[in-house]
Structures are given as structure tokens and as C-alpha cells.
Amino acid sequence: MKDCTLYKMMDIIGKRWTLCILLELHKGDKYQKQFNELKAMLGDITPKMLSTRLKELEAHGLVEKELDSSAIPVKSFYSLSESGQEFIEIIKEIKGWGLKWKFDNPLCSVSDCRYCGVAKATDN
Amino acid sequence: MKDCTLYKMMDIIGKRWTLCILLELHKGDKYQKQFNELKAMLGDITPKMLSTRLKELEAHGLVEKELDSSAIPVKSFYSLSESGQEFIEIIKEIKGWGLKWKFDNPLCSVSDCRYCGVAKATDN
DNA sequence: CAGGATCCAAAAGGATACTG
DNA sequence: CAGTATCCTTTTGGATCCTG
């Protein structure tokens, strides 16, 4: 059972902040975002946690990191990979399910939700 | 951010075994399953863990429990609720994503996968 | 700007044994 | 059959401070 695909998927996506980070990377018009930018958007996440999650996501191929070594200090840019982009669809459905069955969240029910960045799965 | 629908969803579905339990309830032809039956299917799950997860899922409305008090000893039957049934679709997509991008799991790639009970999302 | 290091508190989960 | 209870280990995550 522990070699079940589904079980293993939870090691990738089942950790705190992970889905929110992916969604944050999806938000807005810029396809790349910097560390402190993400940190600010995520509010009360610690740098340690954000760093840990970004490394996991990069290792699993959902997130790509680009470095601008010419800048001083060095700048890093994070973006969704192709697989990460595709996973956003699932995230939307999870959110859609939550809005339908569990949470009456007005902020999430409008398309410009500043927390989640996507509306119900069917709207987007 | 912590009142984000997505963030809160992880408290419901992001715990170990949760998705596998839901999938187990979905498997097969019987729509109800007993505690020890589930336990056997899930292999190395402890009764404590299964009990905890089932209670959480019941509290969140994804799982329904029925008692046969006339039986001695009393028997309990678990099944997916309507919302739980609907969540199976998302589970299939998570699994489909995993098979496409991460894991080459032959057991999961065939429709009668004895571990997961469903094939790729598009097949089922 | 982009983290790393350290320390600590809390939670989660496994092992095992037991019960009505 | 359907769980509880207890104990104990491991993991996780938050706080805080530091650095090139």
C-alpha cells in the first residue's frame, strides 16, 4: 500500500504551505517570482519553511528556479514548470470542492480573490 | 492566508492515509465496508490511525457511518457520502498526474490495480 | 536579497496490548 | 468485531537571529 501512487503523491503535495505556494506562483501576470516576494504574499510563512518547500518542489520538478548571478546580491526567480502548471488545475478543483461543500468563503468566491488567485474551478 | 480555502482544505485531505481510505471506500462493488475490512485492505495501517481518520472524515462529511446494533457484537459500516463520492474524481486526477509526471507504477497503470482501485483519471 | 543555523515546542504517528 | 489506551519515537514546524 505504501508504494501506491496516491500514497506517494501525498509526500509531494500533502505538506503544509505546498499547495498555497504553487498557487502563489500561478497568480498574477508575472510568471516568475522572487523569494521575498513570495514570502510577502504568503504572509506568515517563515523563510525556513518557504525555503524548504521550494526546494522540495524543485526537486520534484513542479517548480523551476533561475538565478541572476550578475546581480549583486544574486537574485533568484521561481516559476511553475510544465507539470506544476498542470497541477494548478487540480488545485482549482480542490478549491472548488471546498467552496461547494465546506467553506463559505466570499474572498475565494470572487475571481480576484487576493488570497487564492483563482475562482471556483468551473469559473476558471 | 491561513483562512484561505485551499489552506483549510489541507487540514481535511492532507493527512497521511486520508486519500487512500477514501479510495478504498470507493473500490469494488460494495458501497459499504467494515472497519476490519478496511484495515485489511490498507495493509499496514494501525487501528488507531484508521479510527482517527475515519472520525475526521465523518466529521467533515465525506464519510458516513452506519451501525447495525442488532448484531452482536455491533457492526459498523462505512461508505462515501455524496461529497466524498465527488472527491474521488479529484483523487483520480491526482493519481493521473502522478502517473504522468512522477511514478512509473505498473500496478497503478492498469485498471484493476489492487492498490489503488482506479486507473488513470482519463480511463475511469 | 535570499536564504541558513539553531533551538525548541508541538503534533503526528507507530508499536503493542487490551476490551465490551 | 470494532475499536481504545498507553507509551514512546519521530517528524514537523514556529521563533529568532544571523550572513554573504
Automatic annotation (TrEMBL), chains A, B:
Residues 4-106 form the HTH hxlR-type domain. It holds the Pfam family HxlR. GO terms for molecular function: DNA binding. Gene3D superfamilies: Winged helix-like DNA-binding domain superfamily/Winged helix DNA-binding domain (1.10.10.10). InterPro entries: ArsR-like_HTH, HTH_HxlR, WH-like_DNA-bd_sf, WH_DNA-bd_sf. Keywords: DNA-binding, Transcription, Transcription regulation. This is Transcriptional regulator. It comes from Methanohalophilus portucalensis FDF-1.
